[in-house]
C-alpha cells in the first residue's frame, strides 16, 4: 500500500533508540537489559525496533500477548522471547513450537506447564511472576510463599526468570518502592538459580538496589521520561509532522471548529492541519497545546477533531498550505504532550495512528 499521500508523517529515530538502550545498559552495570516491545513496540513498529535492539546486543524481548511474541519470533529467530500475560489453556503447543517462554502467573499455570513438559519429556523454559503490590498478574503472596516451601513443583521446568513489577516507580520517594524491593529480595532467596527482574524503566533510575539480574525496559527506550522529578535523560525517538491543508484568513470575529469553542476576535490567520485525534493527537489538547513551526510555538485553537486540527498562524509570515508543522518533536515531546493532555507518555505513544507511514531514520 502506498501511503505517501498521508498528510502526517511519523519518523522514528533508530539512532536515538540505540543511544537510549546504551544509556540504560550503562546505568544498570552488570544487570542485563531486556526490551519490552508489547503493542507493536509501543506503536513504533515492532520489526524495526527489535532488529535495531538485537544489533545493539539485546537478546531478550518481552511482549504482553502471545501473538506479539510470535511477531518477534518471525523477525528474530534466535532471540529469547517472553510473553507476560500468562499461559492460557490450549496455548502450550504454540509456546513449544515457536520456542517462546510463557510467564507462569499462578499455581495453575505452573502446574499446566509442568504437566506439558512431562507429557513431552522435555524441560521447557518459562518465567515466573510474583505479585508484590499490583494485585494484577502473578502469584499472590500466599501462593508464592507456598511455592517457596515446595520448590519441587518446579521440577521438569527450565525456570529462567523470576519477575515482579513495581507499582510506584515513577515516584522515586514512594514508600512502595522500598517495600516491594525488600519483599522481592526476601522471596528470591528460595529461587537462587533464576535471573531476578523487578525494575521497568522507572525502576532503573531508582538505583542499583532495584536492578537485580535483569531490568525490563520499554518507555525509556522510546524517549519517555522515567522519573518525573528529573530532567529526562532519554533522547526523543518519535516525531510527528502534520501538513497544512488550507489557511483561512478571518477578518471579523468568527468561531472556529466544533462547539464554537474558540472565537477569533478579529483579523486572524487559521491553518487547518490534516491530523486529529484519530492520528493520536489527543482531543484533550483542544484550545490547549501548541504546534511548532521552525522553532516557533503556534497555539492550537478550537476543538481537535478526528482528522483536522486548527492552529493560529497569524504571526507566521509566508506560511502556506503544504507546509509541515511539528505536532510531536523538539520543543514538544511525548512527555510535554502527555502533561498537556492530562495523560502519560505511554498513552501518547500507543495512540499514534495507523494511517500514516512510519519513516525510520538511522537504519
Ligand atoms: C510494560 C511492562 C514493563 C515495561 O515498562 P516500562 O515502564 O515501559 O519500562 C515491564 N514489566 C512489565 C511486567 C510490564 O508489563
From TrEMBL:
Modified sites of kind N6-(pyridoxal phosphate)lysine: 38
EC number in record: 5.1.1.1
GO biological process, one term: D-alanine biosynthetic process
Annotated positions binding substrate: 136, 306
The protein's required cofactors: pyridoxal 5'-phosphate
Keywords: Isomerase, Pyridoxal phosphate
One term under GO cellular component: cytosol
Role, per record: Catalyzes the interconversion of L-alanine and D-alanine. May also act on other amino acids.
Family listed: Belongs to the alanine racemase family.
Name of the featured protein: Alanine racemase
Native source species: Aestuariispira insulae
Lineage per the UniProt record: Bacteria, Pseudomonadati, Pseudomonadota, Alphaproteobacteria, Rhodospirillales
Amino acid at each position: 500500500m502506498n501511503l505517501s499521500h498521508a498528510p502526517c508523517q511519523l519518523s522514528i529515530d533508530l539512532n536515538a533508540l540505540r543511544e537510549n538502550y546504551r544509556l540504560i545498559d550503562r546505568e544498570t552495570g552488570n544487570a542485563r537489559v531486556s526490551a519490552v516491545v508489547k503493542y507493536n513496540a509501543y506503536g513504533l513498529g515492532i520489526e524495526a525496533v527489535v532488529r535495531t535492539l538485537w544489533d545493539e546486543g539485546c537478546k531478550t524481548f518481552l511482549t504482553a500477548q502471545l501473538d506479539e511474541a510470535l511477531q518477534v519470533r518471525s523477525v528474530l529467530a534466535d532471540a529469547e522471547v517472553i510473553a507476560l500475560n500468562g499461559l492460557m489453556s490450549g496455548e502450550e503447543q504454540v509456546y513449544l513450537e515457536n520456542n517462546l517462554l510463557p510467564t507462569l502467573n499462578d499455581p495453575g499455570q505452573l502446574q499446566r506447564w509442568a504437566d506439558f513438559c512431562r507429557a513431552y519429556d522435555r524441560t521447557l523454559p518459562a518465567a515466573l511472576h510474583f505479585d508484590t503490590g499490583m494485585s494484577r498478574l502473578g502469584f499472590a503472596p500466599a501462593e508464592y510463599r507456598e511455592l517457596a516451601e515446595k520448590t519441587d513443583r518446579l521440577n521438569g521446568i527450565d525456570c529462567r526468570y523470576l519477575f515482579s513489577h513495581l507499582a510506584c516507580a515513577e515516584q522515586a520517594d514512594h514508600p512502595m518502592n522500598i517495600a516491594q524491593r525488600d519483599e522481592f529480595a526476601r522471596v528470591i532467596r528460595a529461587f537462587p538459580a533464576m535471573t531476578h527482574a523487578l525494575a521497568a524503566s522507572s525502576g532503573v533510575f531508582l538505583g542499583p538496589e532495584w536492578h537485580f539480574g535483569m531490568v525490563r525496559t520499554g518507555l525509556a527506550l522510546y524517549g519517555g521520561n522515567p522519573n518525573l522529578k528529573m530532567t529526562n535523560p532519554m533522547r526523543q525517538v518519535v516525531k510527528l509532522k502534520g501538513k497544512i491543508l488550507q489557511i483561512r484568513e478571518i477578518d471579523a470575529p468568527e468561531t472556529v471548529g466544533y462547539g464554537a469553542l474558540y472565537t477569533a476576535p478579529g483579523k486572524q490567520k487559521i491553518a487547518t492541519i490534516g491530523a486529529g485525534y484519530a492520528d493520536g493527537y489527543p482531543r484533550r489538547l483542544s484550545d490547549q497545546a501548541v504546534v511548532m513551526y521552525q522553532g516557533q510555538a503556534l497555539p492550537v485553537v478550537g476543538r481537535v477533531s478526528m482528522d483536522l486540527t486548527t492552529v493560529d498562524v497569524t504571526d507566521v509570515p509566508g506560511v502556506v498550505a503544504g507546509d509541515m508543522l511539528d505536532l510531536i518533536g523538539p520543543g514538544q515531546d511525548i512527555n510535554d504532550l502527555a502533561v498537556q493532555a492530562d495523560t502519560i507518555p505511554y498513552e501518547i505513544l500507543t495512540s499514534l495512528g495507523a494511517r500514516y507511514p512510519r519513516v525510520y531514520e538511522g537504519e
